[in-house]
């Protein structure tokens, strides 16, 4: 049997947002390496698989990436159908590219299966269109958590004229706020902070950039959460308020 690993995006959490291709790959899987942010409910589509948790969460003990690589290689070389199951999309802050490259360099075929990324789902779950004619000409996806611990160029991002969707930003709210305002983004720019997007426990806090940190503290915002920053974040709400 040809050695192959499927790098599958499980979407933001709601099992109904899985793609048909993801369900097919999971149904054929013999080994599933599952991330922490994947809703366990999707595992009903893996009836015959050995499920191995390989979670990676900021601030928590995480499975080393090198160990995940070795597991994928080991089971693929045994001829098993291997699925690496990731939250969201494997190529949007999901290490899908580096895992595919690592496998390919060792003679293992890797096939990507896209999933709905959390930034898109979080916005639409709250009635926000990330791009809208006359309001937002584009969207920028950015992570506040980098491999080397450096911060994104918030000053430059403030000048893009696009909706900003920030992943993994709960621990960096003050830096985000300061950098964007110093970069010229008005303090009254609408912000939506969306926690546990698409899951039953989803919560949403609407705010303005200048009040974002205070409102997040009052709201007790916690990870996983996505920030949507831009004029479109004022959509689908009659007044700025916090809801749970």
Any overview of this molecule?
- A hairpin with a 7-residue loop joins strand 8 and strand 9 (203-208).
- Residues 237-244 have low confidence and may be disordered.
- The protein starts with a strand and ends with a strand.
- With 244 residues, it is of the alpha/beta class.
- It is built from seven helices and eleven strands.
- It folds into two domains: 4-113, Tetrapyrrole methylase, N-terminal domain (Cobalt-precorrin-4 Transmethylase, domain 1, 3-Layer(aba) Sandwich); 118-243, Tetrapyrrole methylase, C-terminal domain (Methyltransferase, Cobalt-precorrin-4 Transmethylase, Domain 2).
- Strands 6-7-10-8-9-11 form a six-stranded mixed beta sheet, sandwiched between helices. Strands 3-2-4-1-5 form a five-stranded parallel beta sheet, sandwiched between helices.
Could you list some keywords that capture this structure?
alpha/beta, 244 residues, 5-stranded parallel sheet, 6-stranded mixed sheet, Cobalt-precorrin-4 Transmethylase, domain 1
Q: Please give the share of residues in helix.
A: 25-40%
Which CATH class of the largest domain applies here? Alpha Beta
Number of helices, where a helix is a run of at least 4 consecutive DSSP H or I residues: 7
The major β-sheet equals: 6 strands, mixed
Number of domains: 2
CATH superfamily of the largest domain: Tetrapyrrole methylase, C-terminal domain
Strand order of the largest sheet: 6-7-10-8-9-11
Query: Beta fraction of the residues?
Result: 15-25%
Total beta strand runs = 11
General form: elongated
Distance between the termini: 50 Å
- Rg, Å, rounded: 19 Å
Level-2 CATH architecture of the largest domain: 2-Layer Sandwich
Low-confidence parts, pLDDT < 50 over ≥5 residues? 237-244
Overall pLDDT level: 92
Structural class designation: alpha/beta
Order of helices and strands: EHEEHEHEHEHEHEEHEE
Provide the CATH topology of the largest domain: Methyltransferase, Cobalt-precorrin-4 Transmethylase, Domain 2
